Amino acid sequence: MILDSIGIQKILPHRYPFLMVDAILEMERVKRIVGIKNVSINESFFQGHFPGKPIMPGVLIIEGMAQTGGLLLLLEVPDRENKLLYFVAVDEARFRRPVVPGEQLRIEMTVLAWRPSFCKLRGIATVNGELAAEATLMCKMVDREQPDAANARIKAVVETKQ
User: Fold this and answer.
1) CATH no. for residue 74?
2) Residue 14 is among the residues annotated as catalytic for this protein
3) Quick one: pLDDT at residue 80?
4) Rounded mean pLDDT of 100-126?
5) Structural domain harbouring 81
6) Which one is catalytic: 14, 32, 49, 97?
């Protein structure tokens, strides 16, 4: 294991109940990262999704992908405590099988494009080697203290993609 939950929390700003990655198993800086999420029945979202048939919401699998990829990106940023990563796009998202309590989600993220303030990643999430979800994610790094300027930059990126 490269990073445990304590190490992850030193890099990512997310905390319980929204931290969606428990450990990092493999990493090639600015290329690829593999994380895991241990899916427990104690997760708060299972209370309503769905009573009697708990299934991890697909958007939270995507969030786990983003957080795992975010770890890889934030390691390259010297002042990361002053930065946030925002989604700007999720493309080609597909959900292939439900993820249920007691399973371990393996999340592999591969960098497709990298610039200091923008990144495009391809993610796959598997359970016991079986594909559960896949997506291409794009994110923008913004300053934590300037939400208006960050929103304008995100809007500009999104408009250029349309």
Assistant:
1) 3.10.129.10
2) no
3) 87
4) 96
5) 5-161
6) 49
